[in-house]
Specification:
about 325 residues, mainly beta, 5-stranded mixed β-sheet, about 10% helix, about 35% strand, elongated
Length: about 325
Amino acid sequence: MKTSSLVRLVVCLALMGMFSVPMSAQGLFATLTGIVSDPSGAVVPNATVKLINESSGSTMITKTNSSGYYTFAAVTVGNFTYKLTVTAKGFSTYVAPGMELLGGQKRNVNVTLKVGSTTQTVEVSGVATSLVPVDSGTKSETLTTKQLDNFITIGSDAASFIKIMPGFAIKNGVTNAANYSGEVIGINANGDAGSQSPLNNAYSYNGLPGNSLDIMADGAHVSDPGCNCDTPVNPNAHMIAEMKVDMSNFSAATEKGPIVVTSVTKSGGSHFHGSAFFSARNYELNANDALNNASGAPKPANKYYYPGFTIGGPVLIPGTDFNKNRNKLFFFTGYQ
């Protein structure tokens, strides 16, 4: 084989590896389905259905089949909402904005069109709160961006939110505190404070033994594969859009478990957005633990001072027309 041909082959294989998506990443996507019908309940075939990302403007388009059924598979989830529009000849345009889709879920929206012209628009509110999962027996709980931003944690590790999730109980002998506080300490969770990971026998999940938890970030396993006792990469609460805990009956797309925590990173949109923060915590402002007071032990001298920022938006190349409509390529990054 000629050198030039070999180089081309290597480049092609590298590109295929860069743009391939592993099967384990299916928790990053959602599925939206539904049936389009007229006021009498008869189905409407060949209606045009669009799912528009209200943050970036990117659009998915499909048509209903002969049974009036439509589906959108592999819908990206994150810190944004979608708008669903349906158009058909002889009917007013149906618009449902503000729809939030969650990772790994299949949801259903049935549409009833009103007779009229396509230039008329019927905007439906409240659809976002009426979305219900279908065809799934998964037992799970999901924290959205708003909840992650509003809840208070000791550190910035989003995995500490499992403390408030159903089915989790402290597992640390006779003490009333877990050995995992949510701090992000050292590399591979090794530091002066010891192993700071929810994988380190800190909690019991659904009554299961310790070390039965798996943590995934954007579809990749971030638990130590050697011992399943640490998380070399901790999901940062400021930088993720949602965190989902699957407790049972999840699909074969999730090959580990039996308890799986999945986090999805925030993404950029058509406009630049960001944040800057400085978190400060000093033990002088804390109350002591009741058991410490009873035994005369002092309160832990914990101090946290850390700055950080996030920024996301469209990828632009100055002096060119690349992505000029700001709806093709986006970025998001953060630092703490």
